Amino acid sequence: MKNSTDLHSVLIYAIDEKLHIHSDHVIQNGTIQVYDGAGNKILQKPVDGTEYFSVNMNVIRGIYLVRLNTETQSIEKKTFIGKKDGEGLMIPIGTIQLIGTMVLCPTIQLMLLSRQDVRIILTF
């Protein structure tokens, strides 16, 4: 566990209605804020002393601005939040051995959560 806040390593994404934040470093004295399309703040929660944070969102399906602030840095990403009603993409894992995250391009990331669970995350 690295004890530094480097927001360049933070991954912000949602699976259905649950917002997730993963970092390679411990997030210290952070705050997560979520804004709707009209710019209204709909969530603010502290994030401190952890590399992983998740929260259930009870929102209308859509794209939201997620902002993570610390004492020295800030990062924001637009993320789709909401139940996708069974929509999805299945990818055969085949010979993939490593569980982790890889960036396919700046807007697409492939997450290998287990040998049976692969997620593709699109950011806008």
3D structure, described in words:
By secondary structure, the protein is an all-beta fold. It starts with 10 loop residues before the first strand and ends with a strand. The strands form three sheets. A four-stranded antiparallel β-sheet has the order 4-3-6-7, with no helix packed on it. The protein has strands at 11-15, 18-27, 30-35, 41-47, 50-56, 62-69, 74-81, 101-105, 108-112, 118-122. It folds into two domains: 1-86, Immunoglobulin-like (Sandwich), CATH 2.60.40; 89-124, no CATH class. Helices cover 0% and strands 53% of the residues. A hairpin with a 2-residue loop joins strand 1 and strand 2.
Relevant terms:
124 residues; mainly beta; Immunoglobulin-like; 2 domains; four-stranded antiparallel sheet; three-stranded antiparallel sheet; 10 strands; 0% helix; 53% strand; globular
What's the short story on this structure?
With 124 residues, the chain is mostly beta strands. The protein contains no helices and 10 strands.
Secondary structure layout plus pairing:
Elements: E1 11-15, E2 18-27, E3 30-35, E4 41-47, E5 50-56, E6 62-69, E7 74-81, E8 101-105, E9 108-112, E10 118-122
Antiparallel strand pairs: 1-2, 2-5, 3-4, 3-6, 6-7, 8-9, 9-10
